[in-house]
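Morning!

This is the sequence you dropped in the shared folder:
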Amino acid sequence: MKKVRAIVSICMVSLFVVYRLFISQDASDDHRYKRGDPVPLYANKVGPFHNPSESYRYYDLPFCIPDKVKLEEKKEALGEVLNGDRLISGPYVLDFLVEKDSEILCRKKLTKEEVAQFRKAVDKDYYFEMYYDDLPIWGLIGRVENREETEDPKDYKYFLYKHIHFDIHYNKDHVIEITARTDPHSVLDLTEDKEVDAEFTYTAKWKQTDILFENRMDKFLQTSLPHHLEIHWFSIINSCVIVLLLTGFLATILMRVLKNDFIKYAHDEEAVNDHEETGWKYIHGDVFRFPKHKSLFAAALGCGTQLFTLTVFVFLLALVGVFYPYNRGALFTALLVIYALTSGVTGYTATSFYCQHEGTNWVRNLVLTGSLFCGPLALMFCFLNSVAVSYSSTAALPFGTIMVIVLMWIFMTSPLLVLGGIAGKNSRTGFQAPCRTTKYPREIPLLAWYRGTVPQMAMAGFLPFSAIYIELYYIFESVWGQKIYTIYTILFIVFILLLIVTAFITVALTYFQLAAEDHKWWWRSFLCGGSTSIFIYGYCLYYYYYYARSDMSGFMQISFFFGYMACICYGFFLMLGTVGFRSSLLFVRHIYRSIKCE
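The structure's back. Tokens below.
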């Protein structure tokens, strides 16, 4: 009972902290203005439109800075920095209800180097991102023309937009909406390497609207992925029906086979062993034999349990509306804080499992648990952050932010991990096995090739992957594209379906393995449960080569795409592997309790 209370307390503290971080610090604070009041405008970043990970500071490009604009960097939260946001005072002055018509921003003589820098940015489809009263503004900085429609680079023309038209909607004393339009006729020719005189201008028009301030973010909900919600729901329901029919079909077969097994073994007991035992009952003395490398196994279970808890908490926050569009950095902050606060779950799960299986060096097991997921993630981060630093990208975390994360790990994650480990070590519960384990293991008979670990993992991963295949495309478009994803209800349904299918297919394969008198099911069930992550990473290759190959480019973007997706898939492997093993353990305990084992 004390353990349950401790876990519930950790969960409540985690939810309270995250709630205070996001709900009490809403990015859509009630800003009220009077005519002529300055409205904050911040320039965020620029970068290639098709390389979402490759972003730079706005003024890394030689945009002109008006004399009346004082550059001040906005103090950002941890999640905003992790998201690559670097907000600084924007060049435009858009006071409340003050209209401007072809206002001169500045005049500047662009050098040859600056012309070449702008031309390179236009060639890579650079976009700019700003925030006006916490409302996002996007636009392309220029365009490329090829009127001859040839592949010869000499026929390409490069133009930089000189004029931006702002349409701003207001309701009483609130800013409701803003859009930016570039004038295709007001451009600067950057084709030749020569100095160019440039005059940048902008226009601001105000229009009244009936949209309430609290509903001003609904626009982004309507334009989020997917565009046709009814078709999307239909495809998800279709996938659910197909998967549930397949699992139901397999469940029916499995239940009938188990029923026949129970009747057969009950008849054998009445016949007083007229013939030798066969099938899964034959290995009852070996099925609960502890697995090899039990310290690593316990650490994997601990990390998988924590990642599962983290995922559930993030879904709860998403379903209550915390991650609304352009709540900058909210998701990254939630992941970081919840992961730190739930590290006690990792320590308790891993150490208790390790000690139940007669482990003696629980301290070494705890160190292994703490580094099993964080270690590879930290190494990948160091490599990718070094790449981002070499590119001078905003994706590179500042030293101060890195130190904050390190201090969180030292003073929050590690102590909770140790406390959880101590609680797990002191738990007096032993491993509940319905059958006694023999002193010497039985020899496993020679099995067909398709009963090996790799073929079983391939079969186990395909069905769960087919349940989430449709949703993966939309998630990739959101994470690795410029799209918005807000349909968290559908995503949660798909996640539940993924858990159900993973648990069932792992249980089915575990039964077939035991029926073949192969008692080494511990690691097999974990590997089969986590094999879906291999299919997800395979989908990364498919997505890159068939959806984004012509768009994503450059070493940095490719490194970020495959590097961070490898970390995500590794996390899925640990989480789904834990689900598969726990489901198989419940199943194995159930069937061996249902028979009489000598």
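Headline: The CA atoms of residues 21 and 333 lie 9 Å apart.

More detail when I'm at my desk.
O.
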